[in-house]
Each structure stands twice: as C-alpha cells, then as structure tokens.
Amino acid sequence: MKIAIMGAMPEEVAPILEKVGSYKTVEYAGNRYYEATYRGVELVIAYSKIGKVFSTLTATTMIEHFGATKLLFSGVAGAISPSLKVGDLIVATKLSQHDLDITAFGHPFGYVPEGSVFVETDKEMIEMSKEVAASMGKSVQEGIIATGDQFVANEERKNWIGSTFGADALEMEGGSVAVVCSALNVPFFILRAISDAADMDASFSFDEFLETSAKESAEFVMNMVDKI
Ligand SMILES: CCCCCCN(CO)Cc1c[nH]c2c(N)ncnc12
After folding, report:
1. What is the CATH number of the domain that holds 176?
2. Predicted complex ipTM
3. pTM for this structure?
4. Range of the structural domain that residue 113 is part of
5. Contact by Cβ (8 Å): 188, 71
6. Lining residues, ligand 1, CB within 6 Å
7. Nearest CA to ligand 1 atom 2
8. pLDDT in tens, 180-215
9. Please, what is the Cα angle at 171 between 165 and 172, to 5 degrees?
10. Residues known to be catalytic
C-alpha cells in the first residue's frame, strides 16, 4: 500500500512534511514529490499548485508514476453552508465541477457526455474519519464540495453554486482529483478546513486563516494515515 497525501499549496503540505520529518524529494513533470515512510506506511506527498489542471496532473502522477493506492487530500476551502465557520472541517461525500457548462445543449451544469455531475468519495474512509473525529474530540461535517477554476469572493456566485449543486463548500482542486481517482479506481478522501466564507471578505479571511486552517486539516489527515 502507498498513500498519496496531496494539497494544492505549499501551506497545505508544509504541516504534513513537518510531521513526517524526513523525506526524499523527487522532481518530476514540473513538480516536486516527497517520498517518506511514516509509522511504517509508505507515503508520497505533494502540493499540485492551484486549480483543476495542476491537481489533475499531480493526482495522476501520484497514482500512475509513484504507485499510490489511496489518495488523501488536505487543504482549505470556502464555506457555502452557514453551519461552516472558519476552522471547521468538512469531509466530501461527493464533488462536482461548478464551472463545467454545456447547458447551451440542454445538459445540467457540471455535466459533459460520458461524465457525471457528481463523483462520490470512498465510503470506507468516510467511516474511518468518523472514528478519527471521535478520537480527536472534533466534529467534522460531511457534505458536497464544488470545485472550479476561480477563487470565489462573491455572495451571488457562492449562493448560485450552493443552490445549483447543493454544495456546502467550494474550492479549486477536489472535483478534478475525484475524476482522476475514480477513473483509476483509487479510493480517495477529500478533507478541507474552512478558511473563508467565499464572500466579499474572502481574500482577506483566506490570507488570515490559510495557515491555521491548513494545519487543522493536515493534523486530521495524518491521524487518518494512522488508521488506514
Ligand atoms: C492565492 C490564492 C489561492 C486560492 C486557493 C484557494 N484554495 C483552492 O482550492 C481553497 C479555497 C479557499 N477558499 C476558497 C474560495 N473562496 N474560492 C475558491 N477556492 C478556495
């Protein structure tokens, strides 16, 4: 078994590498991949860079080139659900791409032929996350995450995404990672800690809480590794 632990930004992966301690750095396909053994488990760790294209490349590389057999994503997200506040954790039950749009042909938002609006995450790891949350004394919300190639800082856009996809949170990589892992038949788990409310103050909130929220998510994901 080899577990991929992925983020999008250096701040999302830094707390993982700190926890792991020692690792080998491999340069490949315009990115850096960190190989380590953590409590007897083989890991490959990387941040993809932001957005669906970079995250697709990294998720595919971690599986196809580094041989990952499970993938855990750790990062931050913007809240849509009013029940999600800065620092809260959300586990994705399924993900969509909110900026995928061929509605001109009568298709629903997020759908293209031979694709699907939603990709579901691994149910076993969702169950495992409940045990981890209990052991940490943390409450973790399960919900739908919508992904798009835009930093959302607009109440109207946020609410449209919420109502169109039933999404509880939004970000820029999970939906593409989901397509990759599903196509390659690799169980995957997407965890995000809230950094902002995807409203007009989002960029300021993101800047203020990125580091602390990323650490929250990373701590949880590393506890997941212990259970896998
Ligand atoms: C330098 C700017 C980096 C933005 C990267 C944000 N990540 C993308 O995965 C998560 C995220 C947190 N809040 C968001 C929001 N309001 N809209 C989109 N994505 C997010």
Report:
1. 3.40.50.1580
2. 0.99
3. 0.98
4. 2-227
5. yes
6. 8, 50, 75-78, 151-153, 170-173, 195-196, 198, 202, 206
7. 151
8. 999 999 999 999 999 999 999 999 999 999 999 999
9. 110
10. 12, 196
